[in-house]
Amino acid sequence: MEFFERFAIPHPSPAIYASMVAIALVSIGIVAGLTYFKKWGYLWREWLTTVDHKKIGIMYLVSALLMLFRGGADAIMMRAQLATPEAKLLDAQHYNEIFTTHGVVMIIFMAMPFIFAFMNLIVPLQIGARDVAFPRLNALSFWLFFAGAMLFNISFVIGGSPDAGWTSYFPLAGNDFSESVGTNYYMLAIQISGIGSLMTGINMCTTILKMRAPGMTLMKMPMFTWSAFIANVIIVFAFPVLTVALIMGTTDRLFATNFFTTSNGGMDMLWANFFWIWGHPEVYILILPAFGLYSEIISTFSRRNLYGYSSMVWSMVLISLLSFLVWTHHFFTMGQGALTNSIFSITTMAIAVPTGVKIFNWLFTMWKGKIRFTVPMLYSVGFIPLFTIGGVTGVMLAMSAADYQYHNTMFLVAHFHNTIIPGVVFAMLAGLTYYWPKFFGFMLNEKIGKVTFWLLTVGFVLAFFPMYLTGLDGQARRMYTYSEATGFGPLNMLSFIGAALMAIGFVTIVYNVYYSFKNSSRDIGSDPWDARSLEWATHTPVPEYNFARTPQISSSETFWDSKKNGHVLFKGEIEEIHMPNNSGVPFVMGMIFLVAGFSFIFALWIPAVIALIGIFVCMAMRSFEKDHGRHISVKEIKETEEQLGGAK
Amino acid sequence: MKELFPAKQVMGFVASLVLTAVALLVYFTDMTFTVGMTILLATAFIQAFLQIVVFMHAGESKDGKAIYANILYALIIALVSVFGTLLILLWDM
């Protein structure tokens, strides 16, 4: 029995026992359902072993939506606890665990897979490629992300959740102050999914640099591809820092090294420094693809080409460089001198300039355009003013002298939610609605979509704008309660009402998918929005080889040119297509990583070593494997094209 | 005969041996910490540059420019991270 005691929750409550039962029931339900409907083979052949970028993209999408609800449940619990003074819904320990997992889940396991979903779905189509450069590596990236996400999500039923904040600052995250295995979960789950992200970064950079269709110079790439490229460059340069910092943190916790301890020459502040060298670029990894999606959507629904294409590109390049020069603004109050703080204040404010350029470019794109207020466009139009408010409060926070007043208060919490929700979440929902017909063959209902938009927008404003006020009045973040005398009660109640509206908004998305699946027309053609860039030039649903013939590129809006200006997109005969084979190895490797991570978390060395050997065996097998892919014959392509309604 | 002889690579090989020998001197001779670190840093960077240019053929393919831009970008970010960290945690703490 003693062996099993380590898996017990150090701080149990009825809610956690209920979750254990729920998780067990859902798992049994899934297994029983798959067996009953005889879907195991289908699952293995079509999804678990796939290397198709579109299917991997859909798996990222589903995971991201699931994690959105997991992180959202955390959020609503926090707001409920803070809705009234001295509430007893959660105790301090649970509150700590919940704000920690909310942050990690939303950034690493919701926003990251969401952007990877769109990169996977859209980038190869926008550049006219058949798949990404390394399809099997792409599958491995997904399964590593998936393993990391699962590992992180079982923490609250096995061994206890991390509770040191999503930033996990040392010495709090060290063994002295975080005794449970929670922070081990943090270190290893993020490590595993981070390796996956790094691989995606390399993969996407190679794809975009090497696999563009003939005629597509760099300055003729669609804007989403540009934003994906820049984001992946940042990934390649920023994630190694996180990898190293996490390894150092892991060895501190598991092997008693002294990188971040306060004794024996360790330096706890070094963790904060490393974390934000990665952490600030990470913000731009998330926001740049979101900007790319907005650029596509605003241009399509204004029926105009994107204003200031080259200034859009250069502002992103500048942002990518500046994103590495500002990290200290996350810890202005840590004790470094005024000189350092001033330098980083100035670089931080400088980022507002290229971002402002982009905002004005979107406004000028809409200027005198024929605007259609569809759901994706509503999100984009709502994004501009809301995000600008977030940006302005960001400049306020960038002033290091004033930051001594704002730091560690709800003002900061309001600021970063104000940029991430209208910036990233709205973009993902806009992109979801915009690209839904391309990948699922039917449109999402516009009426329900508009209800969702308004619920989310009103809910967002009610939930987060009061925090600016309570923050300036001194309400600290990460405090699980406050006294009635502070007077924070009414505004926090307002926040809770806003959060509840947002929760209803997210539920309407699920209802929308269900409703549209049942009622929407399947006869929508391949270009339902009258769009402009190349991803809309192929069939809906997209055949596995994407384009039967390689498209010829004329500009960043080749598809629009072919519709309006007589550009011939597809020339020549259909030829045989070379495609990669499916493989089960990435999935198996992901699962071995899961076992390895779990074993390290609980310091079970024998299974840990066996799992590590398993990983190397998988890699060695790949080196000796001869897999030249397969060819789709001309006859087969022609049949598929006929089925989808005529050759393209 | 002249076209067939890989003069550049042979020179590179000799140069990398010399650089390694110079770096080894730091261990075998008695010098101050500052001098030793300076020699090590200098030889390490020259060595890395030599390897990339001569033996990994940077700049020989048609995306040579992109490779150098990439290296320069990496170098800038590495230097900013290192010196930024030193500034924050040591020089201005």
From TrEMBL, chain A:
InterPro entries: Cyt_c_oxase-like_su1_dom, Cyt_c_oxase-like_su1_sf, Cyt_C_Oxase_1, Cyt_c_Oxase_su1_BS, QoxB
Transmembrane parts of this sequence: 15-37, 58-78, 98-125, 137-158, 185-209, 229-250, 270-294, 306-327, 339-364, 376-399, 419-436, 448-469, 489-514, 587-617
Enzyme Commission number: 1.10.3.-
CDD domains: Ubiquinol_Oxidase_I
Catalytic activity from the UniProt record: 4 Fe(II)-[cytochrome c] + O2 + 8 H(+)(in) = 4 Fe(III)-[cytochrome c] + 2 H2O + 4 H(+)(out); 2 a quinol + O2 = 2 a quinone + 2 H2O
Pfam families membership: COX1
Pathway: Energy metabolism; oxidative phosphorylation
PROSITE patterns (alphabetical): COX1, COX1_CUB
Named cofactor requirement(s): ferriheme a; Cu cation
Location of the Cytochrome oxidase subunit I profile domain: 38-554
Cofactor remark from the record: Heme A3. Binds a copper B center.
MF terms in GO: copper ion binding; cytochrome-c oxidase activity; heme binding; oxidoreductase activity, acting on diphenols and related substances as donors, oxygen as acceptor
Membrane topology: Multi-pass membrane protein
Cellular component, GO annotation: plasma membrane; respiratory chain complex
UniProt record, GO biological process: electron transport coupled proton transport; oxidative phosphorylation; respiratory electron transport chain
Class of the enzyme per the UniProt entry, highest EC level: oxidoreductase
Function as written in the Swiss-Prot or TrEMBL entry: Catalyzes quinol oxidation with the concomitant reduction of oxygen to water.
Family from the record: Belongs to the heme-copper respiratory oxidase family.
The protein's name in its UniProt record: Quinol oxidase subunit 1
UniProtKB/TrEMBL annotation, chain B:
Pfam family, any one: COX4_pro
Chief place of localization: membrane
Cell compartments where the protein resides: Cell membrane
InterPro entries: Cyt_c_oxidase_su4_prok, Cytochrome_c_oxidase_bac_sub4, QoxD
Membrane topology: Multi-pass membrane protein
A GO biological process held by the record: aerobic electron transport chain
EC number of this enzyme: 1.10.3.-
MF-aspect GO terms: cytochrome bo3 ubiquinol oxidase activity; oxidoreductase activity, acting on diphenols and related substances as donors, oxygen as acceptor; proton transmembrane transporter activity
Keyword Transit peptide: no
Parts of the chain that traverse the membrane: 12-29, 35-55, 67-91
Keyword Acetylation tagged: no
Enzyme class: oxidoreductase
Catalyzed chemical reaction(s): 2 a quinol + O2 = 2 a quinone + 2 H2O
Keywords: Cell membrane, Membrane, Oxidoreductase, Transmembrane, Transmembrane helix
CC annotations in GO: cytochrome o ubiquinol oxidase complex; plasma membrane
Similarity comment: Belongs to the cytochrome c oxidase bacterial subunit 4 family.
Function: Catalyzes quinol oxidation with the concomitant reduction of oxygen to water.
Name recorded for this polypeptide: Quinol oxidase subunit 4
